[in-house]
């Protein structure tokens, strides 16, 4: 299972969480664990040796784009992948397409987020490496999508497979325990996105160990 920890703009220590991510990733053969800090922390996080992802890239190339995030810069800072169209950083469909293209150009792995199976189908058609279904109403609640809305995960898996069977499906929202990760896997998800369960934990290593232990 792929476990991607999104730090959003939570007031945690990104380097401490990244060290926990690196240590837990190295301690297991059954999970791949990565962290997505804020753009300005990418370099410091990547220096820990943790697999580092961006939270967003813009659908742009080098040039006159003040205030935007260029995929190549994110890759230069040490990121190997990027989220696109997170529910807290929504893009127009054409811009999701452009951001996937920009990430591909920079050699970044891509996960395109979406709210529901219909959007997952549209996202899969843009040929990212993976799509992630995250019902916005469950984000940050501690109520796991795999329990509260298993149909949405199964629907997302079916919708992506219908469009492009090479696109993996992840799910997220409210996931904080190993049982939640196991349940996500049983619904056909190849990984999970999570944030508050680790970013707000007093002991991120313990929180991450709990996530991978039952796998
Ligand atoms: O938005 C999320 C991950 O990208 C999920 O957030 P929570 O894990 O806090 O529900």
From TrEMBL:
Source superkingdom: Archaea
Family annotation (Gene3D superfamilies): Aldolase class I (3.20.20.70)
GO cellular component, one term: cytoplasm
Catalytic residue positions: 86, 134
Cited function: Involved in the gluconeogenesis. Catalyzes stereospecifically the conversion of dihydroxyacetone phosphate (DHAP) to D-glyceraldehyde-3-phosphate (G3P).
Organism: Natrialba swarupiae
An individual GO BP term: glycolytic process
Metabolic or biological pathway: Carbohydrate biosynthesis; gluconeogenesis; Carbohydrate degradation; glycolysis; D-glyceraldehyde 3-phosphate from glycerone phosphate: step 1/1
Entry-linked Pfam families: TIM
Descriptive protein name: Triosephosphate isomerase
